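TL;DR need structure tokens for one chain.
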Amino acid sequence: MKTLNSIGLDFNKSAELADKLNTLLANYSIFYQNARGYHWNIKGEKFFELHLKFEELYNDLFIKIDEVAERILTLGHSPNHRYSDYKTASAIVESKEVSDGMKAVSEIISSFKTIITLQRELLALSAEINDEGTNALMSDYIRAQEKLVWMYSAFANKE
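>> reply
TL;DR here they are.
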């Protein structure tokens, strides 16, 4: 029994999962800040439409950041909180000031690809250790984000 954490999962395997969740947390944090930048700096013909969509996006990312950090804590580990750690661990890079809506949408689609790929890895890992909590969280995120990719891609007229 000493090998199980407080929610009945193998402590060592949940540590591996928590590390991967910290990587997800880093990517979400950079993505969040980028989305705020798109919201603040957008200009041009689609300003009103994109300004609102980018605000919706960063508000959703803010919630997910908190949920992922709390999941790491639930697993009995500590979420990283330093931005310097996020920059090192994240595959998503900080965006330069982006005022062009189509460039911002392209960067968003690319960021979702990174996030969804990482969440699929987490889904497989959480299934392997019977962690239904993380599994359900990742599954919900993937489903919703796949739809967003489709919508942003349709807006950008990309496939």
